[in-house]
């Protein structure tokens, strides 16, 4: 099991450590509800060093990146970030990722922790004579996510970055003589930044942010609240809404599938009419819908829960799942969740569950 | 972690307190800590007859769900209705306000098969 450069700090802060994607990661510190409250109202700091960083450069890099994922990066300017999906030949998702355009021929891809080795191997095996260099530099960098309404002000107190930095844009800034990439991205539905620093500077950056945010009530936050926040925000998580058996169209990610360029899996996605559709729902009972539970329409199994939790914002259980497209289920409709043999009524709703605090 | 003397404990992390043939049941400090923030407790109806070792309810926390296993056999006399509105009592007061059910024990000998506080504390150490 791998440990991030912040492991000792997590232990000192009293975090509960769990294995996640090959890493020993903090799942919670003070408690999920307290951490949720911090992020929604103040600021929370997350260790996301386990995420993978793959650098791609070279004269053919734009064409290469477009060939291996669904969104079209050709129009991106340096300083922009794009969400995308990498598919196999069947059009199923190998991973979802963020693409950063560092320069005309220079890119950074941030991929999921559990997929990073597999992703890197896939990319490296598809360079096919292209003039590109693909480097897995996950070990060289640490990544922190600072999220919440106070996050940007706290980050600005530690590191100078352009105040006009827009959502899904990044800037390079300096911290203790090291170059840090500050991006207006995140995974909580709140305003905030993600900061990528050299591995050797990441712990000092964590300490500086925790100190700067003390008066604003910053809280260290674990994986459990990260999952809760992203469900409330309606974001997909690999292994739940996306996996090697789910294509991005079925996953409701048509907006990142651009048919204006050639990419692996395009043939399978062209003309595909998904048999399932992604739905969101709230429960009328108090049981929590867990991944794998059946969804029922008129008492008949018609789908599966992919994510579920108790929403502190809504004060009720919420869930996301897939349901047979031909059942005609839409927001406002009634379904049920099979919770340990009991049919619990649920109401289909739109995503996100809560109004996003994301700055755009 | 606190494991008060005088209670009987199970390896499934329930506690049982016997008073004049009535056994009050809840979950231990270790259990509430492992579960994290409790958001729902599903309990049986009064009058339900349960056997020792069988599930009698469910505790849901934000991140996980756990079955509750009955330490003794008997009939459910009372359930803690406060947990419906304040499930967090299980976290804040697991041995007191966060109790779950009271059972009319049908076989007191079953209590003797449960762990003492010291035995339970040793058992928890063995899990780490």
| Averaged pLDDT of chain A | 96
Poorly predicted regions of chain B: none
- The number of helices of chain B is 5
Rg over C-alpha atoms of chain B, rounded to the nearest angstrom: 13 Å
Number of strands of chain B: 9
Using only C-alpha atoms, the radius of gyration of chain A works out to 20 Å
Q: Strand portion of chain B, in percent? A: 25-35%
What is the rounded distance between the termini of chain A?
Answer: 38 Å
Low-confidence stretches of chain A: none
Please give the oligomerization state of what you see.
heterodimer
Find the structural class of chain B using helix and strand composition.
alpha+beta
Fraction of residues in H or I helices of chain A: 10-25%
Spatial strand arrangement across the major sheet of chain B: 1-2-3-9-8-5
The largest beta-sheet of chain A arranges its strands as 11-12-13-10-4-14
The main sheet of chain A comes to: 6 strands, mixed
Broad structural category of chain A: alpha+beta
Secondary structure tally: strands of chain A: 20
What is the overall pLDDT average of chain B? 96
Distance between the termini of chain B: 14 Å
Order of helices and strands of chain B: EEEHEEEEEHHEHH
